[in-house]
DNA sequence: CCAGACAATCGAAGCGCTTCGACTCGCCGG
DNA sequence: CCGGCGAGTCGAAGCGCTTCGATTGTCTGG
């Protein structure tokens, strides 16, 4: 293991000079810099992370807390995680992967040990138990998702209210009067995950404004559960011609069921999904959808956090504007 | 930020004593231990990770390299990653998330900087460019997946040869004589990802032994590509009554197509999938499948690595035995 | 009753890096 | 010709922890 001191000796300079070459915090003559850089290369020197962290009290690590549940929004989570990791690297940070399992303790551990310089929390609930800790520990953090009280916190999320509104608007614009929402699993609402409720808010308020009749039903996802939900919806509102789906696991089952019942998409029934682009494109019908900009969220979160760590205080809440892409699953409401 | 020294002072002992209480590397009297532990609690002490790493040259961090591609086996990857993270925690390790993006450089960086004590590589290719580095740097590592040359490396993987064999065996046992394999995307085979080729090996050799006629076709996944692949297969071998699918993105399309063509599953056609359990259960037909034991692989990988780090040298290659679960998609071959 | 063994504790020497103050030049303006 | 300045470099003092003797008692067996 090559050390700074060895590089210094090899280059014929002092250790501090090498350090300044590395950090650029003081001016170094061109010749010295080159000599040092050459030694670094020749010896294959890599600064020791621990020593660096100790001396500078900066670990150059960002902690990312992902939810433990592997049953839900997996691709989205993964995409965010990967976006976080790659974006972090471009800013010179590495990413520490924490699972939700440890819960609040993880916050304590990371903040206390100086393992990471800051953290990004995913899957934030409206009344998340990690938040008080975050506030009191003054740990630089960015949330992906929106809690009930955002005071003093930096958050990044898709604007789900606007997303909901956009879906209804699209269907209303096509003449649909009865729209059903196939929502997330009941557990998601019970946990008060913010995005689900905000979407619903947006759906409802725009429905009110446009005179659309809205029916919302949570749905577990999977074929059987979706079948039950859909048949219940069609019993209650036989005139339903528009569906909004916010549950990846219900998308394909829904399409299969509609086909099976002889309802053509989009001639008889229109479907709008809130899902990652990939899902919308790969479905059996190319879906009109509002995409979940997972990558962008991950990237934004890191950039907000890095800004904080650099002392550039920044915006508190960033809501990414939703974009609806019209594909093959929505069209004018059938004339009756 | 509370330090060891402050805890020592508060407890009226020396710093080294506190350290030994924490590490348990020397015997400490019960009374002293309790006093120290009390001080730790009262002061809310957390050891500083950097200092610890520097002094002990152990970071207690495991690096996990996940593939950058977000288009393939995402749920499996995620499940493995989460299993790695949680298992690592139970052994006192944290997990650093590296994306494939950096490629071999990441290995150099991590090995050189002492950022992590060891690493786990996912999505290993037959002739992976990270392997030479791994060998020369003597970095403790575990691969998930099997390269061509496993010499000096520790690997964990599902036994894909046996998996392939098992699938054929199951179908052969049910009387199927013509079996088609819908494989991974061509790119996967071109990259020489080991598991795809090994599965194929297993399929073929058992087909030979059981006298089954086997047709293998790579498939991109998605509806259109799968449709093309299936119709080609049925043109070439109209008597095909058994399908083996090893591409999650082709599973649902395949089932839809079969339905559409009026081929009943499992009465007319049997389908066996190689996929995560969740996919098999949530499909429109509950699939007979060999599951990808993602969690188990993650857990095993960590345990192998921890063993290495503890100086307990261990087995070189661990192949997890496949298990086929019979569900609703396979049955006796139709009588002609 | 003493040598030797053992348990419990302390002190000090680092681990490899960053950073601050100080020092040495060469150069400029007065 | 001298004081002062900035660029470039060095030395040394830590950062908070682990770990290796060394030290002090306390027991034990002979």
Principal-axis shape of chain A: elongated
Radius of gyration of chain A: 25 Å
Helix content of chain A: 40-55%
Report how far the terminal alpha carbons of chain A are from each other. 79 Å
Our count of helices of chain A gives 14
The helix-strand sequence of chain A is HHHHEHEHEHEEHEHHEHEHEHEHEE
Output the structural class of chain A.
alpha/beta
Please tell me the overall pLDDT of chain A: 93
Number of domains of chain A: 3
Tell me the CATH superfamily of the largest domain in chain A: Response regulator
Largest interface, with Cβ-Cβ < 8 Å? A-B, 55 and 56 residues
Q: What profile does the largest beta sheet of chain A have?
A: 6 strands, parallel
Oligomeric grouping of the chains: homodimer
Give the amount of beta strand of chain A, in percent. 15-25%
Protein name (chains A, B): Transcriptional regulator
Domain HTH cro/C1-type (chains A, B): 3-32
Organism (chains A, B): Streptomyces gancidicus BKS 13-15
GO molecular function, one term (chains A, B): transcription cis-regulatory region binding
Task: Provide a descriptive summary of the structure in words.
- The structure is a homodimer of 336-residue chains.
- By secondary structure, chain A is an alpha/beta fold.
- Chain A folds into 3 domains: 44 residues, 434 Repressor (Amino-terminal Domain); 125 residues, 3-Layer(aba) Sandwich (Rossmann fold); 133 residues, Rossmann fold.
- In chain A, the strands form 2 sheets. Chain A has a 6-stranded parallel β-sheet with strand order 2-1-3-4-5-11, with helices on both faces.
- The termini of chain A are far apart.
- At the A-B interface, helix 4, strand 1, helix 5, strand 2 and helix 6 of A face helix 4, strand 1, helix 5, strand 2 and helix 6 of B.
- Chain A binds a DNA duplex (30 and 30 nucleotides) through helix 2 and helix 4.
């Amino acid at each position: 293991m090559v050390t700074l001191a060895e590089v210094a000796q090899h280059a014929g300079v002092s250790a501090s000079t090498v350090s300044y070459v590395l950090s650029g915090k003081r001016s170094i003559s061109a010749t010295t810099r080159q000599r040092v850089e050459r030694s670094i290369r020749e010896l294959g020197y890599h600064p020791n992370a621990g020593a660096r962290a100790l001396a500078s009290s900066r670990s150059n690590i960002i902690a990312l807390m992902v939810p433990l549940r592997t049953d839900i929004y997996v691709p989205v989570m993964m995409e965010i995680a990967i976006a976080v990791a790659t974006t972090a690297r471009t800013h010179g940070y590495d990413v520490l992967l924490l699972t939700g399992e440890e819960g609040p303790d993880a916050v304590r551990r990371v903040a206390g040990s100086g393992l990471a310089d800051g953290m990004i929390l995913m899957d934030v609930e409206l009344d998340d138990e990690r938040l008080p800790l975050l506030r009191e520990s003054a740990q630089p953090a960015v949330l992906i998702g929106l809690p009930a009280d955002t005071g003093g916190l930096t958050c990044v999320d898709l604007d789900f209210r606007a997303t909901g509104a956009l879906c209804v608007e699209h269907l209303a614009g096509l003449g649909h009067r009865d729209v059903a929402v196939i929502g997330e699993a009941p557990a998601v609402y019970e946990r008060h995950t913010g995005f689900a409720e905000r979407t619903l808010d947006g759906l409802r308020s725009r429905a009110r404004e446009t005179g659309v009749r809205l029916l919302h039903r949570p749905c577990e996802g999977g074929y059987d559960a979706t079948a039950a939900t859909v048949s219940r919806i069609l019993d209650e509102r036989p005139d339903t011609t528009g569906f909004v789906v916010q549950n990846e696991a219900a998308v394909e089952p829904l399409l299969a069921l509609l086909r099976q019942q002889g309802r053509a998409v989009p001639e008889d029934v229109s479907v709008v999904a809130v899902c990652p682009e990939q899902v919308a494109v790969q479905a059996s019908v190319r879906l009109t959808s509002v995409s979940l900009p997972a990558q962008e969220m991950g990237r934004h979160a890191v950039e907000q956090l890095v800004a904080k760590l650099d002392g550039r205080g920044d915006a508190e809440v960033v809501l990414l504007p939703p974009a609806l892409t019209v594909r093959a699953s929505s069209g004018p409401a059938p004339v009756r």
